[in-house]
Design goal:
mainly alpha, 4 helices, rod-shaped
């Protein structure tokens, strides 16, 4: 395309008027900052919630079969108890 043509002049003028507008400049700066902020919030929530997953679940197994299997699969999440259901319900209600 010839740089002296009228179409080239119009394209150049339109392009320059769009990229020098306040909206384009603000959008060019704000959009990446918003993306970084969103990822930062996701990472912060993930880091802060890691301590909450350290809780173990008590397994009351009256048959003596299923509970052992669960505990053997993942001892970091489960443990066996030999207490009655009423005592366990009270501990749950007391947030223990």
């Amino acid at each position: 395309m010839n740089k002296n043509s009228k179409i080239w002049t119009i394209i150049t003028h339109e392009y320059m008027s769009k990229i020098t507008s306040k909206g384009f400049i603000i959008g060019t700066i704000v959009a990446p900052l918003a993306i970084i902020l969103i990822y930062g919030i996701i990472i912060a929530v993930t880091i802060l919630s890691q301590n909450e997953t350290a809780l173990k679940l008590a397994i009351l197994d009256k048959t003596g079969e299923i509970g052992k299997e669960l505990v053997n699969r993942d001892t970091s999440k489960f443990y066996l108890v030999n207490e009655s259901e009423e005592i366990l319900k009270k501990k749950v209600l007391d947030s223990q």
